[in-house]
Fold:
Amino acid sequence: MKVLITGGTGFGGTGLAKALLPRHQVSVLDIVSPHHVESLKEEIESGTINYIWKSVHDIQSQDIEGYEVICHFAAQADVPLGFPSPAWTAYENVMGTVHLLEAVRKVGCERFLLPSSGNVFGRPEYLPIDE
Structure:
């Protein structure tokens, strides 16, 4: 099976990519420079993972053609940054997903997975304290 993981250098994407590798053809799309990806360095250098250095905001239909499964992890997941910059967080997370879904709508794919994050449940150390 041919799988594309957006945000694939993050915690969830990396874990999924490594778990899928033995049985599937995996591509990872992320904005992190391939030279700074420590979590998948060996897999990228050996060619066992196809690395696409691109933002979901710039994705085109041809970038996702042929993938049977797309797992969308790409997001601005830095909770502390969300407080001083909520508009940026919304743009990254909502519009990034919209761009990807538009590309998928044009070419289709068998499965589109939108996983969640531990951040949605809230972490006490990141919650603002009202005095």
Notes: The chain has a mean pLDDT of 89.
